[in-house]
Amino acid sequence: MPHRIAVLALDGLLPFELGIPQRIFGLSRGSGPRDEGRKLYEVVTCSVRPPGPVRTDADFTITVQRGPETLATADTVVIPASYELGPVYTEGRLTDELAAAFAHIRPGTRMVSICTGSYVLAAAGYLDGRPATTHWSSADHFQQLFPEVRVDPDVLFIDDGDVLTSAGVAAGIDLCLHIVRRDHGTAVANDVARRTVVPPHRDGGQAQYIQRPVPETQSATTTSARTWALGRLERPILLRDMAQQESMSVRTFTRRFREEVGVSPVQWLTRQRVERARQLLESTDLSIDQVARDAGFGTPTSLRQHLQAALGVSPTVYRRTFRAGKA
């Protein structure tokens, strides 16, 4: 049976965020020989009340056809943001309705929040002693309200195993794609990203807030350098080589790159090489030595160190995990 995801629709919800799980998980299809084209997730929406209308922050309501008992059937529960959290937001406690709804959730269910949905997880005790994030503009208030939570206000999302939290809006897309990638591998996640027309991967540790995310009018960008680098990841790439692609000094290029991408060129290159290594480990039978060379790490030791730092596993364990899932 497909993995069942229940999305909890609360009054004051943001329609965009409510639709993210349906879009990302709903498009996920199997790619292995035994599950080609198979629907990998069943996504259902439920309310804390019996079926009926739920207010949004827009000029319309939605009709939710399932009540809180649906949470008892979920393998994963997703809580999008809401602007009407009441005592959850002001006092850090669940309403009676929410508490009754959460009582349906089975132990071991994976819990996910998008944006300020993290307040609900924290009020329910799921984040006690754990790392978590939320929208950067709410991070200080969130930390003050829930001092037992280890809040990181600077990242796009945090994966803490069975509890995952994300920053606002688009970061919810990143988190859902990350979950698909974690569950079923890079190929499935990339296919969903292509059909959704979004970047296939933004690392969870990437900064939420880039000071100047859109270059000034008529100013040069670093797009050509990134395209050039992606075409030669297996070769040595020096910072000055990337700067030359844009006819900039190294200093100007580095500053502009960080303004546009949110990380340094070296950090970006490492992330792209980790992503290339993941794809090769999942989709080919190349030796670990060859994967290290083709991804641009040069040696298996370097590959192992970077994969361990990024994913917490060795290349061999990563391949065994995801190749086994496709057998």
Q: Indicate the low-confidence ranges by residue numbers.
A: 210-218
Per DSSP E runs of 2 or more residues, the count of β-strands stands at 10
Count helical runs: 14
SSE pattern, N- to C-terminal: EHEEEEHHEHEHEEEHHHHHHHHH
Largest sheet: 6 strands, mixed
Q: Approximately what portion of the residues adopt beta-strand conformation? A: 5-15%
Strand order of the largest sheet: 2-1-5-6-10-9
From the alpha-carbon coordinates, what is the Rg to the nearest angstrom? 21 Å
In whole angstroms, how far apart are the ends?
17 Å
User: Which structural class do you get from the secondary structure elements?
Assistant: alpha/beta
Mean pLDDT: 90
Helicity range: 40-55%
Shape: globular
Can you tell me about this structure?
- With 327 residues, the chain is an alpha/beta fold.
- 43% of the residues lie in helices and 13% in strands.
- It contains 14 helices and 10 strands.
- The chain has helices spanning 15-26, 87-90, 96-102, 118-123, 139-145, 170-184, 186-196, 223-230, 239-245, 250-261, 265-283, 288-294, 300-311, 315-326; strands spanning 3-9, 41-47, 52-55, 61-64, 76-79, 110-113, 131-132, 150-151, 157-159, 163-166.
- A 6-stranded mixed beta sheet has the order 2-1-5-6-10-9.
- Helix 9 (239-245) crosses helix 10.
- The longest helix is centred in the last third of the chain and has 19 residues, at 265-283.
- The radius of gyration is 21 Å and the shape is globular.
